Every structure is written in structure tokens, then in C-alpha cells.
């Protein structure tokens, strides 16, 4: 009994960790969850801010990373791609491929819009030329007294400059193609401005309806208007206009009257200078084109392009089937001319 009282008493104490009721494992799980959420939101942000081409490049990279790393291209080798690759495209001589939006897409041009813009630009040039000539008429003392004889307007053919006669101030000598000194002065001033634009020039001469004593059978208003137009052409060139700018010189006699109510009005005697627009130039240049009327498609195309439609010339040595009808028409016209009385007057 005495030995039992001296036996030592041993007390065992178990030390528990400071992790609370469930321990510290939840912190590790929570950290993993936050990391996963951060990675997820980062992925969503990248998908939302990356272009379609870059996304395709990323997909190609993960689909076959070895090929992209060695050959480059297909998005990963592009400098704008998220994942950079290296090397040159083995299928090209130089450069890299880019799979995605094509920055070098084929450009399409609106031809009709371009033609309209060219027409507007040409109209602006013609208006500027008109204003310049009007300014010269108003400021040059030698031209101010002739301002009533200079008529400028914009027509469907281009800028028209008309030099007309006045009752006591004709441009030419009586019934001749000899220019008066002041007419030469006017033409010289106009010639100085015509080289400023590339447009071609058309020049026509006009007379009044007063006929020659010999009528139309010898020298007539047709020859007079033509001679006056050519005299004006020579004077424009003498004034400094380039020779190759002249595209057409015609004499129209009294066929196109300025004052249709009074055919004998001196204002009908005039020289008309037209600075032609591009459309008028092309129509003149195509006047000599003909097509075979047997080909309907060619006729339609020629009409659209403004070509002249006429019958096909017969082969050499083949009689013209229309010759008899033409001969009869010519005889009838000659008989009518001889039967008509002509007043013997002299045009100015």
C-alpha cells in the first residue's frame, strides 16, 4: 500500500493547432479559387479585346505550335499578333502571311462618279477662264470700248466667245475677210488666255442673210464665212495661241443666225470661238467613225459611243445601187435653184 502511494502521476496534454475549428486547409482552397477566377476573367478580357485575326492566329498556334514556331505566319508570325512567331514563310519569297482581315483588299472605283467629278472640274476651269476674259475686257483700256461686241456664255459645248459686228463698227472689211485693226487687237488679247487650259478650240464664221449678186453658184456667204474664220484663226496664232489647240474651223454662212427675227441684223455677222469641253472634243473626233448596219450589236455600241452610222462602202468597181436616186435628187435641186429668184445685194 505504501509503494502505491509513492507512484508518480503522469498527465498527458495534447496540443492542438491554432487553425480554429476546421483547421487551415480552407485558406489553401480559397486561394486556389481566387486564382482560378482571376485567370478566367483575364481570359474573358483577352477574348473581348482581341481581333478576329489574332484569335485565329492563337488557335492555329495551339493547334500546331511546332509548325508556327519554325515557319512563322498564319497569325503568330505577324507583328500585330498576341503570340509572336519567328522565321519566314516557306511558301513565299519574302515576308510573312497574315490570316485574318485583308488590308490589301481589291479597291473598286466608281467610273461614273469619276467622270462626273472630271466634268465638274472642267466646268470650274471654263468659268475661271470666262471670269478672266471678262476682267481683261473691263480693265484693259483698249478693250473697254468693244465690250458690247464681246459676248461670253457657257453652253453645252463649252465656253463660247462671240465677237459680233455693230452697225458702224464691223470686224471685217466690206464683203472681204480682211480683219480690222481693232479686231486683231481683240483676238490677240483672247489668244493670251487660251493656252492656260488644255481644252481644244472650235472656231466658226457667220454672216447675215444678205446674199451675193451671183447667189450661191459662185463666191457666196459660205466662202466668206469660211475665209473670215480662217483669218481669225491665223490672228489667234499670231497672238500667241498654240497651233495644235485648234480642232475645227468652219464657215456657217447665215445658217445659224444670232437674231432669227431679223436675218439682216449686223449682229448676225460674227466670229464664234468655243473652248470645248471633253464631251464635245470626243464627239468631233468620232465624226468619221462608221459601223456596219448589218451588225445590230455594233450599231447599238456605236450609238452609245457617238459614232456615225452609215452604210458599208461597196467594194472597188461595184456600182453604187443608190446612184440613180442620187442623180435624180441632184437634178431636181439644181432645177429648183435656177428657178428661184435671187436679190442682188452685197453682204458686209
UniProtKB/TrEMBL annotation:
Keyword terms of this UniProt record: Cell membrane, Coiled coil, Membrane, Transmembrane, Transmembrane helix
A cellular component term, taken from the record's GO annotations: plasma membrane
Membrane topology of this protein: Single-pass membrane protein
Protein localization: Cell membrane
InterPro entries: Bact_OuterMem_StrucFunc (IPR050330), MotB-like_N_dom (IPR025713), OmpA-like (IPR006665), OmpA-like_sf (IPR036737)
Pfam families documented for this protein: MotB_plug, OmpA
Positions with biased composition (Pro residues): 312-322
Keyword Chloroplast tagged: no
Domain OmpA-like, first and last residues per copy: 159-279
PROSITE patterns: OMPA_2
Signal peptide: none
Region spans: Disordered: 201-221, 304-324
Family of the protein in this entry: Belongs to the MotB family.
Protein name: Chemotaxis protein MotB
